[in-house]
Each structure stands twice: as C-alpha cells, then as structure tokens.
Amino acid sequence: MTAVTHPASEDTSVLPPYVLALKERIAYLPEQHVARVLRAYEVGAVAHEGQMRKSGEPYITHPIAVAGILAEMGMDAETIIAAILHDTLEDTSLSRTALAGEFGETVAELVDGVTKLDKMRFSSRQEADAESFRKMLLAMARDLRVILIKLADRLHNMRTLGAKESDSRRRIARETLEIYAPIAQRLGMNKIKAELQDLGFRALYPDRYRVISERIRAVLGNRREAMGRIEGALSARLIEERIPVRVVGRIKSPWSIYSKMRSEHKSFAQLMDVYGFRVVTDSAMSCYMALGVVHALYKPVDRRFKDFIAIPKANGYQSLHTVLLGPFGAPIEVQVRTEEMDSVAERGVAAHWAYKTESGPANSAQARAREWLASLADSQANTPEAAEFIENVKIDLFPDETYLFTPRGDILSLPRNATALDFAYAVHTDVGDHAVAARVDKKLLPLRTRLESGQLVEIITAPSAVPNPAWLEFVVTGKARTAIRQYLKHLQHEDAVDFGHRMLDRALDALGTSLDAIQPEALDKFLQKSKFKRLEELLSDIALGNRMPDQVASQLVASRGTSARGAQAQAAHPSEKIRITGAERGVLSFANCCHPLPGDDIIGYLSPGKGIVVHRTECPNVAELRKSPERCVAIEWDRDVQGDYRAELRIEVINRPGVLATVAAAIAAADSNIENVEYVERDMAAATLLFTIEVKNRKHLAEVIRRVRRTGVVSGAYRYPL
C-alpha cells in the first residue's frame, strides 16, 4: 500500500468526535505516542474507506471503539495502534510489510496474531474457527497483548450484537460464554469477564436475562436502606481504628445469579439473601487489621474465611474473603484488599501496563498467565487436531480451583475434581509418566484419588512405570490428557513398526530372502515410489493393515531382478508363525465374535486402518476370512502373556431367588472380574445368563467354569461361542 492521504493529525478540528474521545482517553501517553495513534487512525480510515458495519456506521468506528476500551485499561501505544489496525490485514488491501514499515514489527505481530486464517483452506467453518483460535493462542503465548486486543474486540462486538441476525447472535454469544469470558477470568480480568458474561447471557437467553434483571432491581430497591446502614457501620468502625478505607456495596450480576441457580440448585431468593461489600485499604497489613475490626463488629461464620493474599488464585487475584452474621438475619459477604489488588482483580494482566511495578500482584498476574500460556504452547505442539486442542483449552478454563502444596511448600492450582495424577503432570511430564501412587497428607493413596484444597501431595514414581490408557478415564487437566495421549501414540507407533518388521520379514522369508538382503538403493527407490520418508513409516503401514506384507515383499524381491516365483522356490522351509504377547497397542485387536484367549489356536486378519484382528481358528467367521488369504496372518501366542482378556460364559441356572448372586460370587472367588451380565432366556423354572468376564488365559477360564458348576444352582456352564 502506498502513501496515505488524509487530514494531518495535528489539525484535530477535522477529526470525528469518536476519534477526539479516544484522544482524550490516551492523554496519559507521551505526545509523540499520541501522534502515532492518530496516524494509525489515518491509515485505518483510508484502508477501511467505503466499508460499513451492519448497524450502518463507518467500519472505522469499530476499531476506534476497541482502542478506547484498551485505553481505559491504560494500555501502551503499540497495543492501541494495533487495536485501530486489527482488521486491516484480514479485510483490506493493507499489507503486513507496509504495516511493519510504518508502525514497527511489534505492531505487525500483534495485528497478525488477531487476524483469522483464510477460511478457504478449511472444509468447514468449525475447522477454520478452531485453527484461527489456535493461531491466536500461540500468538498470545508470544505476546499477551494479542489476547487483550481480542478481548476488547469481542467486548465491542458484544455491545453492538443487536445488528446481527438471530443465528449469528446465538453462535457469537455461546462462543463468548464458553471461551472468551473464561479466558478473561483466567487472566484475572474480572471487569471485562463480567460484562462479556452478561452480554452473552442477554443475547443467548433474552427472556431469562430480563426476568432475573427485573427481580434483582426489585430486591435492591427494597434493601437500599439496610445496605446503607451496614456500609455506614463498617466505614465508621474502620475509620475509628484509623485504618484508611473505602467501603463499597457489591451487586450480583444476572449471569452469576443464573449460573449459581443452575450449578448449586438454589432458588433466586436464597442467592439474593446476601449483602456483599468490598473494603479497600492501603496495604496488606491494613487488610489483616481491617479483617480483625470487621470480625469484631459482626460475628464471622465458621469455615467461610479464605485468605487469597497469602495464597493468590491462579490468575493472580488477591483478597481476603469472609462471611459475617449481619444485623438483619442475612449473611454479609466481605472482601478486603488493597487498591493495587483491587486494580489487579478488575484488570488482571492488563494492570501490569498501568502499574509497571517490578514485583507484587500486578506482575504476579502476568507471571501466572505466562505459565498457563507456556503450558498451552506445550499442549498444542503435541496435539495435531485443532478441535482437540480447543477442548483441552476449555478444560483448563476452569471456574473453580483447588490449591495444593508440594513437599517443598510450593503451591499448585488445579481444577476442581483434579486427581493425584493431574497433580503429578502439573509438577512435570516426567513425574506424571512414571507415577505409581501418591502420598496425600502423608497417607498412601492411588493416582485416581480426587484432591481437595490445602492438601500436601507427594508423588511416588518408579523408573519402570509408564502411562496407561485407563488413565485417560480419570484425569481432568488438558496437560495430563495431552501427555498421556502423546505417550500412547508414540508406543503405538513403536509397536506398529516392530510388528510390521516381523510381518515383512516373514513374507520375505517365504520368498527365500530377508530385508537385510535388499540393496539400500532398491529399498530407497521403493520407499520414494510409495511416498514414504522412512522405512519405519512403511513398516507401520503394513502393521495397520494398509499394505499387504506379501505384496510389499514381492515388489522388493522384483526390484532385485529376481522373480517372486523363483525366489519362492528357493525357500528352504515354511515361515514360522508370528508370536504375539497381546500387548501390541494399536496394532492388535481381539474379535468380539469369538473372544480369543491366550492358549487358543488363533489366526490374524489384516483389517485396513485397524491392524490385525485376532480370531480363534474355530470361530465361525474364519471360513469367510480365509477367502482373502493375502490378508490372513499366521500368528500364535507367546509363552509369557500378561494381562486380562475378555471372555463370555453362557450359564444355565435353576430360576430361584439369589441365584445370580451365587454365580457372581463363584466367578469372583476364581479371581475374575464381571464386566456385564444379561438374561438371554428366562421362564418359571430355569434361566440362561450370559456373563462377560475377564480372565488371564484358557486355564483361568476353565477354573472359573469349574467353580461355577460346583455352586449347585447351575445345570450347564460353557464358553460362548463354543
């Protein structure tokens, strides 16, 4: 884009009123920075010339409004310039190079961070939105100001949502409530979070919003005198004790009332029967002194005191919370904090730019935000699917936190219902991967134990321990879920490579040769032709059933100049069967039609994408499978097989009270777990039950059947299918 012609920024008389209003808001910036902001307006106005919003206003009014929101937070000039230009790369002909040339690389990075990806590259709007969101979060990990611009952008869009169509309004409102408001909360930006939630609530559920808002107004009107008396009593007593304070009443928002009505199953009357006040003073010491004065004025409610000054929330929030028994029979909720803590509670990470302190709460909020963003960056690196990444982010945008102590006295915050295993992964991925148990308040407990605030947690590890697929059923944090999935995918790939190697070796052995005998040049040529970068990819593809080992072997032999038939004639002996242990993750699965067990004669069938499906040789379906001999794999059980395998028992019983419990007790006595039980047939005299159980091998199953037959209530027990 070439030079821009527009009235000079020095001549403010020709500037529109909305730009003059922004100029007043940024009076805290040095003059030269104000001039750069006005220059950004000139460039933005020309770039967006002719573009209109749905409301009919010139488009440039939107980015100027976004810049105004950020100016209220006291943000720096680069953020405000980037806000004015935040839609130029996406919606205008202005190039990134021109942007960086005039306003610097930092502004270009910020604008690029909030620019959506081109939707033409994706198969659906959902996929495009997920990828654009992932891109924004990664940019946010590099520079927090990206998300501040995005939140301000979303806030202004929500304020002007009325011009949109009904479906768009609902979609944008839902996204705001599910993602953007929780991000604002995670970054400690309570003021923006509260407005996003209420605007989202009003757009998504207009009738519910109207009813609750009207009831709040009615209740407050009736209680204004009572609130004034409590506020006066608090102020008078604190001033009497020479503690510098300001006391303000707090009013619950429609969204917070609605959320608590749903989550806590409380009525509107129960939630509104509370008086809320905030006591703001000059120092942390004054906070504790004020707390003592407040407790002397009104009696505190037992177990309702929380000290978030000594133990700040995950987003840097600090305050003392207490609940008192008030003079009107209703509880009084009081928050005590310093002016700076109050600013951090309202602005969160944005308070850093306003306060510029080297330590303390303002930087604490930013440091904690950076820790969270670093964990997000790690998570996305190991999560190829954008949609899965977004789900992990949603898991971490938790409203309730559990605060836990490490043996060194460090504090970790985890979501509500987090387990000891989540704690292990929060300490370090290696600790999680090798965890075996936990000591919670010095008591030995399993990894699935749910933790509560204030507990001291120590993780016990073992070098031989590795992640288990079952762990995914009880972890709740995105970090733990991503790390476990990554490890299992790596193991699956290793097992697939190993199994594919054995299958190809067996196929080559049948042709009288081996993989080592294939010339490296011939192998490289075959891999290139088949579009594989490495041999491991070919071997994994064979194990997953996407390529037939016999066909690959024949092609490799042909590449040596020997015919497959001639090579086969050279084979001195038939190939041995491939031995399996049952632990080949992601490569083997066991057929539900016959439930093969260690000790059974088995056959493998290569199913595309699934790998080898194992059947018993006497399975009724094997005859059909043998019609595709190239997909059949000769396999057998290894001598040492570990683990539990599913089996089905068909048991015919005398139909009388307690018979099911008797049979179940016999199965349990044989050290077998029951997964499922159902009645197949039933009449007055007899019944047929089908038990799905877990056993270690054929011998174990035989022991279960023996014990069941000895109960005296069974007329027949046998493996199903026969």
UniProtKB/TrEMBL annotation:
Residue span, HD domain? 59-158
Biological classification of the source: Bacteria, Pseudomonadati, Pseudomonadota, Gammaproteobacteria, Lysobacterales
Q: What does this protein do?
A: In eubacteria ppGpp (guanosine 3'-diphosphate 5'-diphosphate) is a mediator of the stringent response that coordinates a variety of cellular activities in response to changes in nutritional abundance.
Gene3D superfamilies linked to this entry: 3.10.20.30, 3.30.70.260, Beta Polymerase, domain 2 (3.30.460.10), Hypothetical protein af1432 (1.10.3210.10)
Q: What is its EC number?
A: 3.1.7.2
Record field: catalytic activity:
guanosine 3',5'-bis(diphosphate) + H2O = GDP + diphosphate + H(+)
* Keywords (A to Z) from UniProt: Hydrolase
Superkingdom, natural source: Bacteria
Instruction: Write out the similarity annotation.
Output: Belongs to the relA/spoT family.
Which pathway does the protein contribute to?
Purine metabolism; ppGpp biosynthesis; ppGpp from GDP: step 1/1
What InterPro entries would the database entry show? ACT-like_dom_sf, ACT_dom, Beta-grasp_dom_sf, HD/PDEase_dom, HD_domain, NT_sf, RelA/Spo_fam, RelA/SpoT_AH_RIS
NCBIfam families hit by this protein: spoT_relA (TIGR00691)
Q: Which CDD domains match?
A: ACT_RelA-SpoT, HDc, NT_Rel-Spo_like, TGS_RSH
Instruction: Give every TGS domain span.
Output: 400-461
Q: Which residues form the ACT domain?
A: 648-722
User: What is the protein named?
Assistant: guanosine-3',5'-bis(diphosphate) 3'-diphosphatase
